[in-house]
Amino acid sequence: xxxxxxxxxxxxxxxxxxxxxxxxxxxxxxxxxxxxxxxxxxxxxxxxxxxxxxxxxxxxxxxxxxxxxxxxxxxxxxxxxxxxxxxxxxxxxxxxxxxxxxxxxxxxxxxxxxxxxxxxxxxxxxxxxxxxxxxxxxxxxxxxxxxxxxxxxxxxxxxxxxxxxxxxxxxxxxxxxxxxxxxxxxxxxxxxxxxxxxxxxxxxxxxxxxxxxxxxxxxxxxxxxxxxxxxxxxxxxxxxxxxxxxxxxxxxxxxxxxxxxxxxxxxxxxxxxxxxxxxxxxxxxxxxxxxxxxxxxxxxxxxxxxxxxxxxxxxxxxxxxxxxxxxxxxxxxxxxxxxxxxxxxxxxxxxxxxxxxxxxxxxxxxxxxxxxxxxxxxxxxxxxxxxxxxxxxxxxxxxxxxxxxxxxxxxxxxxxxxxx
Length: 420
What we know:
Elements: E1 22-28, H1 35-46, E2 52-58, H2 70-75, E3 80-83, H3 91-103, H4 108-138, E4 142-145, H5 153-162, E5 166-170, H6 178-187, E6 190-193, H7 196-204, E7 212-214, H8 229-235, E8 243-248, H9 257-267, E9 275-280, H10 286-295, E10 302-306, H11 311-317, E11 320-323, H12 332-339, E12 344-347, E13 362-365, H13 370-381, H14 384-401, H15 404-418
Parallel strand pairs: 1-2, 1-4, 2-3, 4-5, 5-6, 6-7, 8-9, 8-11, 9-10, 11-12, 12-13
Helix pairs in contact: 3-4, 4-5, 5-6, 8-11, 9-13, 12-14
């Protein structure tokens, strides 16, 4: 068991310095680069450094595909980066968890509670003590966490131990158990919710509504693709007259990419258009998805590109963007698609339904209903004019309502208020 904290941590913070600058420690426990990572970096690029001084503490130095790592990206902004390495689970803890699963085989809920109890008393508590020590040593004035309450529980516990204000930026709708709800209510000053849907989900689970404030993700209207649609299409053997349907995201189950493949199979060859499907992303479901495409006879028309750092160039090459995910917070990738003037066909879920306007900027379908998704796609494939009109309306909506400047202003105000 670890009893100290990394020796490279140096004391140089005093909460708020004599010039009124608020010293903030950012905690990120994530394992992969996602939309939340991009939103954090966009915030750090633009926020007033005369008012806020940052340092970050990450559990993992994850990479942007085969490109840069998060350490390099943060340090390029002039911000000190530190790692809190995570120890592998000990054989004893593994045995305890397996025993708990065996004892409570008859109840999934009891199994989850037992495993959580073991995890909390070992890994989570150990991390909380380390983070508390770092907060005190640094003299930090605020802890800002960039995931969601259940994955940042140790940070919430550390803030309560030290009495230092803490803010949670909750980026996805998530289930919380009773301990996590109590910890959030007792240890957090505010929870920044990326959508009303995320806020409502937290409140429904028992989180104090007074602590929950909505700040929508934003995007710069000056965002420009690095490659042209013709360059992207040429690279992947897509003909100029092909209508391109696509999506971008981690290839994991909750993204429900298989629904897109099933829907594509239903309309392929039936709309009078030559169509291709572009799936941009990497993840554990890739092999299953490739197998599904082959099984449906779509192997040469469903194209898997893997992770692409310049995802917006791929979005810009698409004619229709699809978001079939069953759970999100306020997906940045949909902001990007609308900014690139693409009609968005999306599952009707919390968060996304606050961004897409049905029959104006795109179409909704019921999550998991690949037949309904196919119908939405067929409608758009048959009408280039409808695609164009929805794309134009989408860009206008993003520029007018979800600017990066508004996002930074809202988050800055919340950070300032937490230390008042």
